[in-house]
Amino acid sequence: MNSLPLPNRWWLWAIAAVAGSWAWTAAFVPIGVAAGSACVTVIAIVLIAGYGLKRRQRPPTLASYVAVARPESASQWADEVNALLIETEALAPVPPVDQLLKSMEVENHRRRLEDLLRRWVDVAHRYSEAALVLRKEIHAVVQHTEQAANTISSSFQAVISKATLQAREAMELLEGTQGNVNEGAPQSLTDFIRVSDERLTKMADEVVRVADLSVQMVKELDGVQTRTQAIDGFLLDVEKLADQTSLLALNADIEAARVGEHGRGFSVVAQEVRRLSQRSHEFSDRIRQHLKAVKVGLHKTYGDMRNLSAADMEHALQIKDDVITLTHSLEDKNREVAETVGRINTISREIAQDVTNVVMSLQFHDITSQKLKGMLEPMDDLRRTLFHLMQETMATGKNLLPQKESAAAAAKAEEATEAQTVTSDAALRKLRAVGAPINGPSVELF
Amino acid sequence: MTTIMTVDDTASMRQMISFTLNSVGYEVIEAGDGAEALKLAKDRQVDLVIADLNMPNMDGLTLVKSLRALDTYKFTPILVLTTESQADKRDQGKSAGATGWIVKPFNPEQLVNVVRKVLG
């Protein structure tokens, strides 16, 4: 700024010069001349001040615009504008004001365009750098998700195969209790319950029947005892008969002794009859003794039988009750097992549905990867197009991006491998295809 | 035993297909791209090929055409399993000789039904 004359002060100098020249001459001329020249001087000062003030309003407007548009280049621009103004003034000491203003407007427009272009090139450059980073990131994301998906997928398969094995073994175990009878031997819990119920009931019935028989036998024994008592009565009769016979024989013997020698034979007979009577007495005694033993035995048997039949009956009924309780509890258990089997079946069906969901969800990794990869190509196309445009722009105005030499070199290297006519149409079409929804049926057989 | 070959460059996709088809009793062999698939197909006859479209080395369409050029795969069913759903892609697949077109993600039940159908 210092190296240039100040545009907003030159008219002050002019005023000072005019005023000075008047003041200097005023002392040497008559009053009337001095007053006249003072009038002329005042008019001249007014004119100069008016022009100077008018000029002063223009440069700050430009400077303020430039400062808003690009702060760091504002000073540079201001310098250039100053230089231009001075040049104009140097060439034409009395500048044509309208022409000067017009040329400045054109210059201003050109600089705005240049600024916009510079910003475009800058954006293109920054996009291409960002695109490279994005590309790397997308690759990393695809790789990471692929690793994760593989891990999830193999773990999922392991989980499912184990769950399937578990369910199958549980089902085999449980279904075994629900199966059919096989060659007489109970194969399932149901059969076991049925067979044991049958057999235990049969046994209990048998015990009850035995108890009934015991009662019957006790009654029979009662009859036998009555009979033995009757026999006892008969034996008393037999003994009475024997006693009478013995008494009769004694009388006969006495009568025979009275008769003397003739009654000797008769006396022998009477003695024999007495002996017979005695023997029948003895015989009756022996029978009584045996009968007594029989009675004692019978009595004992009778007692045993009674005890036995009562105990048997009670036991048999107890067993029957137990068998019924056991059967019921086994049946309950069996129902529970059947319910568990049902639940396992339901869970298996639910697992199958979950498996379907997981299998479908796991495929989304592949789909997203493909979509991400699909984005890379249009992104690269766009990047190349922008590089190309940047190159062209820089070829037209080399001063637009002087600080981005490396980027320009990279762009040149890339462009060497690419076709010259790169358009963004293809890139946009591909980008649209990436986001396209599913068209047509998901399964189609040709 | 029926052997099915799945061709996909994504390992998890191959795993999902193998898992789905193994569970219904098919033997599944895997290939990571078209070239590998073609080599495997020449080594042993498979009953069905399920191929992706976008793969490195050899893409799905080229694989379908190459398989159809072989005498042993003239009539083998080939299903394309892909994220592509556009009609022009389908037409390309159809004219290359594919038997059917399944858009990812596949539903396991649906896949099994289609496989059963094309295997007859």
**What best-fitting shape of chain A do the alpha-carbon axes yield?**
rod-shaped
Order of helices and strands of chain A: HHHHHHHHE
Q: Encode the helix/strand succession of chain B as letters.
A: EHEHEHEHEH
Radius of gyration over C-alpha positions of chain A, nearest whole angstrom: 71 Å
Largest two-chain interface:
A-B, 34 and 33 residues
Tell me the number of strands of chain A: 1
The percent range for helix content of chain A is: over 70%
Q: Specify the oligomeric state.
A: heterodimer
Poorly predicted sequence stretches spanning 5 or more consecutive residues of chain A:
1-5, 59-69, 180-184, 402-406, 413-424
The biggest sheet of chain A, with number of strands, parallel, antiparallel or mixed sense and barrel status, is: none
Note the total helix count of chain B.
5
Estimated structural class of chain A = mainly alpha
- Binned, the helix content of chain B reads 40-55%
Write structural notes for this entry.
The complex is a heterodimer of chains A (about 450) and B (about 120). Chain A is about 85% helix and about 0% strand. Chain A contains eight helices and one strand; from the N terminus they run ααααααααβ. Chain B has five helices and five strands; from the N terminus they run βαβαβαβαβα. In chain B, strands 2-1-3-4-5 form a five-stranded parallel sheet, sandwiched between helices. In chain B, α2 (about 35-45) runs parallel beside α3 (about 60-70). Chain B is globular, with a radius of gyration of 13 Å. The relative contact order of chain B is 0.18. Classes of the chains: A mainly alpha (about 450), B alpha/beta (about 120). The interface of A and B includes residues 154, 365 and 373 of A.
